[in-house]
């Protein structure tokens, strides 16, 4: 067994109705002014006001930035940072999916250390702790509340940059399954498969360890056994709890094992064509897993048994069975089958492939991958 390390530095509160603990957590941190980062969609359906009311009922001032968009940009980070500095807040609440949390992490870096977010691009360039942050996910997908990356789109390069540092980890996370029970079916589906991919890529990563495996396997069990049920009925409390917990465990798994080609390739798809992250990942998944099958050493069968419907396979398993099961899962959940269906153009494949090869996830992929391989995979997924 190779050497590995891990730590769980956060306080994570899970449970139906756990939002009520937010003022208590803020008071523990002696925060009298909170900067809330979220989006207009959550404002429209009343979730933002719910959080604002909870904060203010605790006697704590709240200033909000609500212009976060999917695939958030450097411009949005700069706007939010300027408002944070202007209002005099002392802590942050990130409410939403991965986009809100990515922006909050980036704001936490710039508000504390200055400069531009591009100055921190890459690994371990954040010099110390960022502004204290509480993450409140409203999707069961990204796992950003327990991951060390902030992924931001640099419009000048059509490139999704990553700021990877364990200093980015939110200090607290509140996982209240009630918040994901109003999601549209399409969002529940793409976010749920994204979380499943986090667990799968962490599980087959060259950086996998017994710790990340434990998190990944439990995540696959919870998500694989409940994703269809949850997409069918988001009011199913048991399924919602399983998806929320599974997403969190998947996030912990990939925070310590990294990901692979699916995520390396999906980021350019989102950057160039503004395809939602979970959708891009889901489309690419069967193609990449088929490519990686050559490197399998028994883990595909484990994954298959967590996600397939019906009896588990104990013998005569073949890797293509998993690939077909993943295609069926996408079809069952109404996810597009090809990149062309979401607007990806063939002429951009060379540029996307160049950007994908810059990802830190490529070295963790179980099958060694060249630029030529990535180009071929994009063409196949198209």
Automatic annotation (TrEMBL):
Domain Fe-containing alcohol dehydrogenase-like C-terminal: 189-382
Entries under InterPro entries matching the protein: ADH_Fe/GldA (IPR001670), ADH_Fe_C (IPR056798), ADH_Fe_CS (IPR018211), Alcohol_dehydrogenase_Fe (IPR039697)
Species assigned in the record: Faecalicatena faecalis
PROSITE patterns: ADH_IRON_2 (PS00060)
Keyword NAD appears in the UniProt entry: yes
Protein name as catalogued: Iron-containing alcohol dehydrogenase
Domain Alcohol dehydrogenase iron-type/glycerol dehydrogenase GldA: 9-177
Keywords, comma-separated and alphabetical: NAD, Oxidoreductase
């Amino acid at each position: 067994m190779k050497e590995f390390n891990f730590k769980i530095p956060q306080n994570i509160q899970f449970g139906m109705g756990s939002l009520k603990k937010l003022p208590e957590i803020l008071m523990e941190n002696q925060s009298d002014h909170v900067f809330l980062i979220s989006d207009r969609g959550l404002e429209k359906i009343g979730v933002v006001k719910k959080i604002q009311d909870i904060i203010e009922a605790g006697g704590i001032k709240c200033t909000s930035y609500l212009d976060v968009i999917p695939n958030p940009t450097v411009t949005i980070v700069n706007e939010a940072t300027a408002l944070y500095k202007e209002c005099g807040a002392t802590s942050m609440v990130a409410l939403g999916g991965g986009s809100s949390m990515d922006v909050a992490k980036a704001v936490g870096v710039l508000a504390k250390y200055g400069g531009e977010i591009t100055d921190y691009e890459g690994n371990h360039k954040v010099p110390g702790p960022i502004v204290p942050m509480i993450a409140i996910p409203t999707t069961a997908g990204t796992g950003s509340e327990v991951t060390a990356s902030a992924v931001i789109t640099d419009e000048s390069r059509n490139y999704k940059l990553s700021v990877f540092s364990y200093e980015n980890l939110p200090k607290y996370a509140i996982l209240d399954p009630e918040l994901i029970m109003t999601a549209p079916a399409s969002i529940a589906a793409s976010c749920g498969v994204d979380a499943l991919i986090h667990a799968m890529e962490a599980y087959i990563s060259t950086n996998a360890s017994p710790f990340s495996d434990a998190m990944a396997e439990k995540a696959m069990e919870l998500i694989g056994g409940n994703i269809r049920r949850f997409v069918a009925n988001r009011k199913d409390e048991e399924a919602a709890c399983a998806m929320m917990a599974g997403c969190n465990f998947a996030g912990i798994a990939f925070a310590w094992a990294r990901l692979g080609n699916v995520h390396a390739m999906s980021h350019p798809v989102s950057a160039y064509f503004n395809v939602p992250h979970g959708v891009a990942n889901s489309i690419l998944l069967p193609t990449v897993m088929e490519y990686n099958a050559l490197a399998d050493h028994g883990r595909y069968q484990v994954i298959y048994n967590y996600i397939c419907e019906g009896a588990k396979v104990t013998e005569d398993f073949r890797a293509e069975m998993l690939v077909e099961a993943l295609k069926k899962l996408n079809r069952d959940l109404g996810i597009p089958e090809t990149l062309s269906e979401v607007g990806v153009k063939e002429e951009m494949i060379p540029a996307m492939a160049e950007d994908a090869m810059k990802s830190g996830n490529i070295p963790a992929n179980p099958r060694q991958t060249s630029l030529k391989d990535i180009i071929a995979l994009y063409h196949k997924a198209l």
